[in-house]
Amino acid sequence: MEGGTKGWLAVAPWLVAVSSLAPPPAGAADVTLSHAAIERLVWRVLLTDGGRAYFEGGPGETCRYAFVQEPKVSGADGRLRVRLLFSGRAGADVAGRCVGPGDTFDIMVSGVPALSAGVVSLDDLNVEAPDTVYFRLVSGLVEGQLRERLRYPLKANLDEIAALAGTAGGLSLSLDRLEMSGVRVDAEAVHMSLDLGLTAQ
C-alpha cells in the first residue's frame, strides 16, 4: 500500500507475464503488506489536512474541532490496529472565551481487512477510547468518519499497474475480476490472497 503503484509491485509480474504474451499464470497473487507500509497508506488516505484528519472544524478552529493524527499500525488477535492521537473540543464562544469540554488522548481503531467492490476497508471496526464526557459526545461521529475514510481503492491502483504493464508489452490490459480469497493479520504484516481476472487485447 505504498504511494502510487509501487506498493503493489508484488502483483506486477502476474500482469507483465500476460503483457509479454507468455502463457497466462494462475489468477492468484499473495500480497504481504508490512505494518510500516500500511501506516504510510493511513497518512495518504486519512491524514490529508497537514497530517491530520478533521472530523469537525478545521485548522483555523480553536474552540470547536475534532481531529486525529500520528498513526501507529500494529496487528494482534487477527485484527489490524491503528493507534491515533485524538484531540477535540466542543466549545462555544462566551464573552470572548471558549467554554466547553475538550481533551487529548490516544484512541485505538481495529478491524479485519476486507475487500468489496474493489475497495479495501476494515470490517467489524471498533474504536477504543477513554470514557470521557467529551468523547461520549463525539464518539459516534468519530467512528462513522473512520469507517468511511479508512478505505483504499485497490482495484484503481491495480488498474494503473495493468495499464503500465500493457504499455510495456504493446497491449491493452484490463482487470476484470478482483476478489480476496483470504486474509491474515500477524504482528508484522497483513497477508492477502487475491484472485484476479485479466483481459489482454
| Cα-atom radius of gyration | 20 Å
Give the CA-CA distance, first to last residue.
28 Å
Number of helices: 4
Number of strands: 10
Structural class: alpha+beta
The amount of beta strand, in percent, is: over 45%
Overall pLDDT: 84
**Largest sheet, order of strands side by side?**
2-3-4-7-8
Low-confidence segments, given as residue ranges, are: 1-26
Report the major sheet: 5 strands, antiparallel
- Write the element-wise H/E pattern from the N-terminal end onward: HEHEEEEEEEHHEE
Net shape = elongated
Number of domains: 2
Helix content: 25-40%
What distinguishing features does this structure have?
single chain, 201 residues, alpha+beta, 2 domains, 5-stranded antiparallel beta sheet, 4 helices, disordered N terminus
Characterization of the model:
With about 200 residues, this protein is of the alpha+beta class. It has two domains: about 5-30 and about 155-200, no CATH class; about 35-150, no CATH class. It is built from four helices and ten strands; from the N terminus they run H-E-H-E-E-E-E-E-E-E-H-H-E-E. The strands form three sheets. Strands 2-3-4-7-8 form a five-stranded antiparallel beta sheet. A three-stranded antiparallel beta sheet has the order 1-10-9. It has a two-stranded antiparallel sheet with strand order 5-6. The chain is elongated, with a radius of gyration of 20 Å. The model is unreliable at about 1-25 (pLDDT under 50).
